[in-house]
From TrEMBL:
It comes from Corethron hystrix. One of its GO terms (biological process) is rRNA processing. InterPro entries: Rrp5. This is Uncharacterized protein. One of its GO terms (cellular component) is small-subunit processome. GO terms for molecular function: RNA binding.
């Protein structure tokens, strides 16, 4: 595989495409995955992992179990930059199905018991909203907030 053929392959990867990815390992803020026989490497960040966590530690533990058991996941490309060879993927159910999200908090809504999941300097914070206010459940739903 030459650099030119790899670049051509990456240019063919467009946002919205589905990829069957092999889980390489669980990183500090998401999954590191590869696809197309290792030709493409990408990541699924924690807030795009499908909303299956209530805390960062619980997410890592769950994903280690899932990744250890499945070894592969289906994810949709949300960003592909052939120059920097960056591929970002999402496993959020509404993006996998290409439909609008079912539950979107109304603008200006106030919530109690919000958890700060992660702080990204110069980008913002990732909040966990209590699903009890949306669905009657007590788990947290990731809601990225930019600064």
């Amino acid at each position: 595989v030459t650099a030119t053929s790899c670049l051509r392959c990456l240019r063919g990867l467009l946002p919205g495409m589905l990829l069957e990815c092999q889980v390489d390992h669980v990183g500090s803020n998401g999954l590191c995955v590869s696809a197309l026989g290792g030709l493409v490497r990408g990541s699924v960040e924690m807030d795009h992992g499908g909303g299956i966590y209530a805390s960062e530690d619980a997410w890592r533990k769950t994903m280690k179990t899932v990744a250890g058991g499945l070894r592969s996941v289906t994810a949709r490309i949300i960003l592909s930059d052939p120059i920097t060879r960056t591929v970002r993927l999402s496993m959020l159910p509404h993006l996998l199905k290409m439909v609008s999200p079912r539950h979107v908090p109304p603008l200006g809504a106030l919530y109690k018991n919000v958890k700060i999941m992660r702080v990204d300097p110069n980008r913002g914070i990732l909040l966990g909203l209590p699903l009890s206010t949306l669905l009657g459940s007590e788990t947290a739903n990731p809601a990225p907030v930019s600064n």
